[in-house]
Structures are given as C-alpha cells and as structure tokens.
Amino acid sequence: MPANIQNGTRYILVNKKGKTVVDLSGTDSRSVIGWDRHGGTNQQWEAIQTHGGWHLKNAGTGKYLSLGARPENGGSVVGSDEPFIWELVEDSEDQNGIRVKVPNTNKDLDLSDHGNPTAGNPIAIWGSWKGENQVWYFEQARYVIVNKKAGTVIDLSGTDIGNYQVIGWERHSGTNQQWKTIEVNGGWHIKNVGNGKYLSLGGASAQDGVSVVGSDDHFIWELVRDSEDKNAIRIKIPHSNQNVDLSDHGNPTPGTHIVVWGQWEGQNQVWYFEQSKPR
C-alpha cells in the first residue's frame, strides 16, 4: 500500500539492515552511498509528491535521487539535476518501513552487499526480495534551534494549558526542544516533536514584543539565511520586518521569553538549526 509520507517534508532515510543512511557524497555530489548518520543536509531528502510518484530532493545540493544507469540489478543510484520519479510503498512485513521502488519494475533501492554497514557502501537498485537491506525508515529531520547570542535554545514549556509558552532554555535536547520543519506554499511550519504544537504567535498582530507560542495553528514562517553568517537563519514573519527574537537583547537566563521584534543586526535574532537525533 502507499507509504505515509508528507509532501514537502525533509527525511533522513535509514536502512533497516545496515542502520546507515542515504548520503549524497560530499566528494562529488553525485555518488549515493550508505554512511553513518551525522544529520548534515547531504543526508536530508525532501519528499515532493508529483503525478505518478515522488521526487526525492537533496537538501544540501538540490540534486535529485536518480538512476545512473538502466534499471537493472546493480544499477547505480546517483544525485542528478534531473528529477526522477520513485514509487514509495509500505513494506509488507514492517508497516513502519518503506520500499523505494522504480515504477513499473520490480526494482527496489538497495544497500548493496546485503546491507553492509561499512561507511561508503554503494546504494544501488536490485530486484525486490525480502531482504531488510531494501527497507528504509523515513525519519523526519529534527532540529534544536540555538540562539547565536545566548547559546540557549527554543524550548516549548510543558507547564502551560492551551497555547504553550516558548522560552530560551539551556540545551538538554529533550523532545520539547526538538523541531521539525515542513515546507508549504509561502514558507515553513515549525512543529514541535514533543507534543505536535506549531511555533506560532500569541497575539492577533505582529507587533514588537508579541510572544511566540506553541499552538495548534499552522503558522507560516519565512526562513532566511542571515546576511552576515551564512550558517545561521533568521525566522521571519512573511511580508514583514518582524523576526523571532530572544528578548532582553539575548538574555541567556533560562526562561527568557521568545518574542517577535523588528529586524536589527543583533545576534539575538539569529539562530542555528542544529540536527538532533531521535531520543
């Protein structure tokens, strides 16, 4: 049956047998290999639904998971500028596992050498069989969002009822500090891993000092690279000058409120999205 995949979401593809992940080699941005998970963008793949199947687009390079040869046993899988359509199907024996198939064939994405976990092992296609090296777990990329000025992270407080307070807190990487990004038309949702709430606004208008909260509302944010630090992100309200801001000029005290404020050069409005592994 069709796999339960969300359009526009970034995933890390973990092999059931080898436990390594689908990695677009940083050496040539073409070779697709199994590698130990480090969560870099070359290991993140955006699932894009299209007529007839799915594209899998690398978050680091924009390359698409594709075939490097004819769909024959041992055929190479590569990163390509040309979108390739895959069929994503729930594994018949593991409802959490997915088979990545070449449409209208019996060929599946395969961690070669029967799922050899050695880093650098090629990923190829092979005729479908019951081997776990052809079964993949699509795990959503999750981030801890770290303030550049204070070093504290965006934390969804577990003490509120209704809309949840969003504060700066020392990093412990609990699920209330982990966030998934979901691309939508016009921007991004930022969803908490712990309780499924979305990063949102606590007021009807986006004035300076309005609180950022966790809410059931699917609020859309714009994620923009900082002009002075290309590794950092500004979280902005679309079509406005308002940025997510660690208040009191980036006060590192745990519990400091996170709000929106007009953009300025302060590092308390600049955030690092650091990959976090599931706990």
From TrEMBL:
One Pfam family per UniProt: RicinB_lectin_2
Residue ranges of domain Ricin B lectin in the record: 8-182
Name under which the protein is recorded: Ricin B lectin domain-containing protein
Source organism: Psilocybe cyanescens
